[in-house]
Amino acid sequence: MRDVAALAGVSLKTVSRVVNREPGVSGDLISKVERAASQLDYRHDLTASNLRRSDRKTSTFGLIIEDVSNPFFSAVHRGIEEVARERGVAVFAASVDESPEREKDLVVAFSQRRVDAIIMTPTVREQSYLAYERRGGLVLVFVDREPRGFDADCVVTDNAAGAETATAHLLAQGHELVAFVGDDETITTANQRYLGYERAMASAATSIRPELVSREAHTTPAATREVLALLDAPNPPTAIFAAQNLITMGAVRALQMRGLQHSVALVGFDDFSMADALDPAVTVVAQDPREIGRRAAQLAFARIEDPDLPTSVHVVPSSLIRRGSGEIPPGR
């Protein structure tokens, strides 16, 4: 750092303020320091800097999500990074894989590394165990699912309303045999989406047939197996509501395997890559995961700046995108 200061012709304190992104430094001085640092191939030692900082901030966030490879959570991650990058904060992500034990282990791991905030999708049945971390100054924000037994900021989609819209759309095409293919009943969002399905069926005075309900499709291969079983049943559905993006992918595969992609209607919850390029293109209720991530990061920074802010739940609306698969009439 001394070499950077000498080359830039500024004080050591000025270099420190620039590399630590402190306010009140002129643009001209920032440019001088950055040019000198580049010429000397200087890399700021964040660990040493963090030890000296009085506020003990590390300029890092931990992100705990269901699966980093899931396109929905990848987009959430991207939204968080967009906001964090503007503040010079790095985001470290990990998959919880719907494991309560792993969730708790990851919280401890990130806490021990002194992250400034954890943004997470909860898996444990209730989150009261996080009170200890909060007392230690850790900021906690939830995405996709609201916490239980723990009051905290949260960003979600109105899952029930979106699922009701999807199911009502299929019913409006004239379908009565509408199947529901969803995730495990222990998952909050899966229950909310089933509730939306129930509401739409009740509003249309259409009975739910238990044999057309599957709630064990957590992965794409599992969804394919479940949908194949529905299609091969004596009274198969004429329409399917797939309540999660990986489930929709599995449903598409099953319909193609039976040659029924142009005969059985399909609406999925969550958009996914290439959904608009399939034949037929897949009608979906699209969330906005990038915006969910951005709002979560903004809440985390606001909480860091003012720990006494009242907690809030932000609902990001979903939208029905008609592409063709959801508009197939019964008996086609």
UniProtKB/TrEMBL annotation:
<dbReference type="InterPro" id="IPR046335">
    <property type="entry name" value="LacI/GalR-like_sensor"/>
</dbReference>
<protein>
    <submittedName>
        <fullName>Unannotated protein</fullName>
    </submittedName>
</protein>
<dbReference type="GO" id="GO:0003700">
    <property type="term" value="F:DNA-binding transcription factor activity"/>
</dbReference>
<keyword id="KW-0805">Transcription regulation</keyword>
<dbReference type="InterPro" id="IPR028082">
    <property type="entry name" value="Peripla_BP_I"/>
</dbReference>
<dbReference type="Pfam" id="PF00356">
    <property type="entry name" value="LacI"/>
</dbReference>
<keyword id="KW-0238">DNA-binding</keyword>
<keyword id="KW-0804">Transcription</keyword>
<dbReference type="InterPro" id="IPR000843">
    <property type="entry name" value="HTH_LacI"/>
</dbReference>
<dbReference type="GO" id="GO:0000976">
    <property type="term" value="F:transcription cis-regulatory region binding"/>
</dbReference>
<feature type="domain" description="HTH lacI-type">
    <location>
        <begin position="1"/>
        <end position="53"/>
    </location>
</feature>
<dbReference type="Pfam" id="PF13377">
    <property type="entry name" value="Peripla_BP_3"/>
</dbReference>
<dbReference type="InterPro" id="IPR010982">
    <property type="entry name" value="Lambda_DNA-bd_dom_sf"/>
</dbReference>
